[in-house]
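Exercise 7b. Backbone tokens:
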């Protein structure tokens, strides 16, 4: 499966844009990668380093020198995802969304038992399969499929917008709730890549201008569209 933009995603994107503005104003930098962060960031959004003295998994205050959280038992230095090897300081992997804590595993079990989430998951599967079909379809077929794809996206957005955490949930509990209900959708990406350089001197195709005996005479690049389908989690 793969991901598609949804109501919650649009909210997160708006928050991300607002955060970017704050980053530009504060000038605070991550001590590990030196890239801009906000004073409120618990984890560096760029390198994933821990920036707070509290447990990033459950929010418990930690004493100096503690190696693991006394409340949830998670290591202060983070944990590597058993699925993809990414170092994490949250209940879910920031790369593949695998559950990493007991609370995360329980949240996934609850999500799988939620009829509304199962509907979202089924729609996401259809969108993933459709993305691959669209990639090989004719222009006429592609137009029809994209119209159907749009309907499925709207249906998915509507259902995702109805999934809300229990009243009174803490910020950490809300984060786990939404992470457990992320859906994965295949996304098709098309990029233009240089595949050769045709010189003006003899009209030959080279991998780069310096291979020509007279590159000063100029030439032109040849491009090809490279299509890839990847999985993303939102």
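Sequence design result:
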């Amino acid at each position: 499966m793969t991901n598609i933009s949804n109501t919650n995603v649009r909210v997160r994107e708006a928050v991300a844009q607002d955060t970017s503005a704050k980053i530009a104003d504060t000038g605070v930098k991550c001590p590990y990668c030196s890239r801009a962060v906000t004073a409120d960031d618990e984890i560096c959004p760029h390198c994933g380093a821990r920036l707070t003295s509290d447990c990033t998994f459950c929010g418990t205050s930690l004493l100096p020198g503690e190696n693991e959280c006394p409340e949830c038992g998670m290591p202060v230095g983070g944990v590597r995802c058993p699925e993809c090897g990414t170092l994490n300081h949250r209940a879910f992997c920031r790369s593949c969304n695998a559950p990493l804590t007991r609370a995360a595993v329980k949240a996934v079990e609850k999500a799988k038992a939620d009829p509304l989430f199962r509907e979202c998951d089924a729609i996401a599967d259809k969108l993933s399969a459709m993305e691959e079909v669209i990639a090989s379809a004719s222009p006429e077929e592609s137009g029809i499929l994209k119209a159907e794809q749009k309907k499925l996206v709207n249906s998915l957005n509507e259902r995702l917008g109805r999934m809300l955490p229990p009243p009174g949930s803490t910020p950490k509990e809300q984060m786990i709730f939404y992470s457990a209900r992320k859906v994965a959708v295949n996304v098709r990406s098309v990029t233009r890549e240089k595949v050769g350089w045709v010189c003006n001197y003899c009209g030959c195709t080279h991998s780069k201008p310096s291979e020509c005996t007279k590159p000063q005479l100029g030439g032109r690049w040849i491009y090809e569209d490279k299509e890839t389908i990847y999985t993303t989690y939102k």
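Instructor comment: The chain is about 35% helix and 15% strand. The beta strands are 79-80, 87-88, 184-199, 205-206, 219-233.
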